[in-house]
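anyone seen this seq b4? input:
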Amino acid sequence: MPTPMAVARTAAVTETMDDIRAIENNLGITRSGVNAIRDRLAVLAAERELFPLDEFPGPPADGGERSRLYRLAQDADDRFALYAQRSTANVSTPAHNHTTWAVVVGFAGQELNRFYERTADGGVTETHQHMVEAGTGVAMLPDDLHSIHIDTPSLNFHCYGLALERLDARVYYDARNEGWKVFSGVSNIYDARPDLQQH
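predicted toks r here
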């Protein structure tokens, strides 16, 4: 039986995702559209009492995981997926795209986002940075490039136009070998929807 907290959280998430679908329908996959989705997700993140950190535990200290994703919403056709990402310290990714729109909104801790452009020789160059923390967020179009860097434990919201399990064409820049590679699949997703709480 879901707790009153879980029922309230589910209702708030459902309302948020309904609004996000409407935003995409009205504004399309545009810069103004993804910015509006980011702002709507920030409203959900401000309802702090709905997301106690102990209900989204981080990876065990003695394991190999650096972060866990908790699925909060996902449409039956795998569109409009929302996750809470709980990370330990020392998490970093290379520059990568998403092949769908993506929004990250802060809740607890800090996540440095670095943004890049492709260079003429096939590499990347950093263009700017944004610190995602409570009350702030970033929004990306399918081909935008970013990397994340987390130095302290954090929990942030990640929302995508297509579920992570379906993003099998994402690429990242391998700086050591100066080339692009396909991102491996995401496996550390735990379902946080009340009726589907299994790995």
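Residues 104 and 138 are 5 Å apart (CA to CA). Residues 4-53+63-191 form a domain with the Jelly Rolls fold (CATH 2.60.120.10). kinda curious what u guys think
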